[in-house]
Amino acid sequence: MIIRQICILGGTGFVGRTLANRLTQKGIKLRILTRNREYHKENLILLPTVDLIETDIHEPEALRAQFAGCDAVINLVGILNERGRDGSGFHRAHVELAEKVIDACLKNRVKRLQHMSALNADPDKGTSYYLKSKGEAENLVHQAGQEGLYVSSYRPSVIFGPDDSFFNRFARLLKMTPLVFPLACPKSRFAPVYVGNVADAFVKTLTDPKSYGQRYNLCGPEIYTLQELVSYTSECLGIKRFIIPLGDLVSRIQAALFDFVPGKPFSTDNYLSAQLDSVCETNDLARLGITPMTIRAIVPQYLANKIQRARYYQFRSHLSGR
Fold first, then answer.
1. How far is CA 7 from CA 46, 55, 59, 107, in A?
2. Distances in Å between the alpha carbon of 92 and those of 10, 88, 130, 268?
């Protein structure tokens, strides 16, 4: 299969920007759909072969218009929390969007679809709205393979990299919290996978017929508890915090309280997701010929850079205030 033009949903996000860089290096033309072109243009507008288009991805007619002339579609859209608490936000972002993507692909005769899912995604066994809706969407796109779509899905553990929402979020929380840091679900296990490795998996399988119908589990080379990861973040920041592991009941109470905190740094749905370890029984990066990067090779660099920038701006602020 020859791929000359791809439409990407979620291309302005953390994974999307990395993937866009990989694909433009191959000379592939990209249409990246966004709700706010001006907000994201600094990150993507300079990439060769990228067309950043402002549109509503939840509008079926808009999707059909943007998929026209494309050889492939990549759907990276996902949310970790919803505004409400009834699962409708997850269903809209994951399931309903997947249905619209499938419809727009079929009507435009787009043959190739790559879909971002998640480890433990399962419509029946998922412990949270997030995992259930991700699982339902994943099954939907694979069922579309019976209608002529060449589908692959990708199921990563927590993804890390310079702009991630995992280590960076805990870094902010640790700096805001004096001395003691109460941590919910401390024994939950993860196999953090580097964003560059995830992007490589998409690129390597893009035109490979052997990948059609495949569901790829993507993990890093090491398994950590959440407490170990937060302790490591503190170590990288060079700050001392006493991390207090919370028991199950207190973790659930904290999650219920945080449901009402703006931005939801933690939620009941996050708590429910954390009841399943995010680790791979079989890591498919190996069979794709991709060597997974460790957190120790990557994380200290970008956390250190953020500390240096913060000190620089603090110094400038001090000078300007004289």
1. 17, 12, 15, 15
2. 15, 6, 11, 19
Element at 112 (helix H, strand E): strand 112-116
Average pLDDT over residues 29-55: 82
CA distance 151 to 239: 45
Q: What is the pLDDT of residues 104-124, one digit of tens each?
A: 999 999 999 999 999 999 999
Q: Which strands, in side-by-side order, build the sheet including 112-116?
A: 50-54, 29-34, 5-9, 72-75, 112-116, 150-156, 215-218
SS3 content of the chain, % helix, strand, coil (to 5): 45, 15, 35
Helices assigned H by DSSP within 75-222 = 88-90, 97-107, 129-143, 167-176, 195-205
Write the pLDDT tens digit of every residue in 220-232. Answer: 999 999 999 999 9
Domain residue ranges of the chain, discontinuous segments joined by +: 5-161+194-218
Domain spanning 5-161+194-218 has what CATH number? Answer: 3.40.50.720
- Burial, 72: exposed, middle or buried (Cβ in 10 Å; 0-12, 13-18, 19+)? buried
Selected residue with higher pLDDT from 314 and 104 = 104
* Signed CA dihedral, 69, 75, 76, 77: sign only: positive
Q: Which residues contact 101 (CB under 8 A, 6 or more apart)?
A: 9, 63, 73, 75, 113, 141
Helices 195-205, 14-24: crossing angle, 10 deg rounding: 50
Question: Residue 282 — φ and ψ, nearest 5°?
Answer: -130, 125
| Mean local confidence (pLDDT), 164-190 | 95
* pTM of the predicted structure, to 2 decimals: 0.93
* Alpha carbon 309 to chain centroid, angstroms: 25
Through-space distance between the first and last CA atoms of the chain, rounded to whole angstroms: 63
- Bridge partners, residue 151, by sequence: 113
